[in-house]
């Protein structure tokens, strides 16, 4: 079970790292070895933190939209 969790976290972190580099227009950072080592060592911590921060960001955006809707009434936002 712990091994499956670790493998899932590594895959998730490498996916996010690759997505980040592709949006910036570079394949991998100036030192892809360090990025790979960092992911392999810290994946079990990085993946849950990233998921938590993403969830918090989504909740805050939803609350902001609700507040704007309350302030502006039935007008289209």
Name the descriptors.
83% helix, 77 residues, 2 helices, elongated, mainly alpha
Give the fraction of residues assigned to helices.
Answer: over 70%
- The H/E string reads HH
Mean pLDDT comes to 81
| Form type | elongated
> Main beta sheet: strand number and arrangement?
none
* Extended strand count: 0
Determine the N-to-C terminus distance. Answer: 46 Å
**In what range is the share of β-strand residues?**
under 5%
Using only C-alpha atoms, the radius of gyration works out to 18 Å
Query: What class would the helix/strand composition place it in?
Result: mainly alpha
Poorly predicted residue ranges: none
What is the number of helices?
2
Written description of the protein model:
- With 77 residues, the chain is mostly helical.
- It has two helices and no strands.
- Helix 1 packs across helix 2.
- The radius of gyration is 18 Å and the shape is elongated.
List the helices and strands and how they pair.
Layout: H1 2-24, H2 32-72
Task: Write a brief caption for the model.
The chain is an all-alpha fold and 77 residues long. Helix content is 83%, strand content 0%.
């Amino acid at each position: 079970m712990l091994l499956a969790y670790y493998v899932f976290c590594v895959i998730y972190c490498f996916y996010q790292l690759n997505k980040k580099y592709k949006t910036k227009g570079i394949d991998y950072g100036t030192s892809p070895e360090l990025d790979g080592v960092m992911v392999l060592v810290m994946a079990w911590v990085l993946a849950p933190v990233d998921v938590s921060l993403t969830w918090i960001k989504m909740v805050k955006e939803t609350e902001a939209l609700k507040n704007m809707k309350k302030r502006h009434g039935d007008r289209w936002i």
